[in-house]
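Entry type: protein chain
Record version: 2
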Amino acid sequence: MEYLLIYMGIGALAGVFAGLLGVGGGAVTVPLLLWVFAVQGISAEIATHMALATSLAAMIVTSMSSALAHSAKNAVLWNIFPFLAGGVILGSVFGVVTAVQISGAILQIAFGCFLTYVALQTIIGFSAKASRSIPGKPGLVGAGSVIGCVSMYFGIGGGSLTVPFLSYCGVPPGKAVGTSAALGLPIALWGTLLYIFNGWQNTLMPEYSLGFVYGPAAAGIVLTSPFFAKLGALTAHRLKPDHLRKVFGLVLMVIAVELLWNNLV
């Protein structure tokens, strides 16, 4: 029971930061899940894959509500969405099939490098400048494949990749964010199914698991993250998000350094 409360706390933190700063939950949930799984005594051989899969599973509900909200505001480019989503499905298959073959330590090193990128992006606030137009169907499928693959490695919804890509292609910020939010649903849903399938026969998984998805953790996060995301969004209008963004970026940098230090030294 105490662990369920901890998972609800993780969901609350992820929701607050998502609503407050627009930062995807995976950057918060995966490192915290790794810590809790270690405290629970879960085998290091599967802990990283569990954290990635559980993060994606918990993202399904929030991605769905976010996609509907952006669609209601006509902020989703539905004309390019099917091709990006098709690429996501292809890339996700490759991402999960290869991720389950990679050791947890290597995945954590890669995640530490990715968090460093997200931290710098958060602190500095740099964004891609429009340098070209939206590519054709093959280009969109290719971009979606990369986004889907990388999302499976890091348990994220792809926003830190999709938004810069669309901005680079000249898409206005509002529609870039909205389309990215909509794309987060197939990433989370398809990624969860793939991690369930690939972890189905793993005998190291603890009770109440579905493949690599750990049910109690996913349930705890889902119970609190939507509510606290709304709370974070309301709070964002009363505070200076730029200052909070820099503090959060520094926290992410500390987590990234710790992950890299623990696995490289």
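Comment: Residues 2-264 form one domain.
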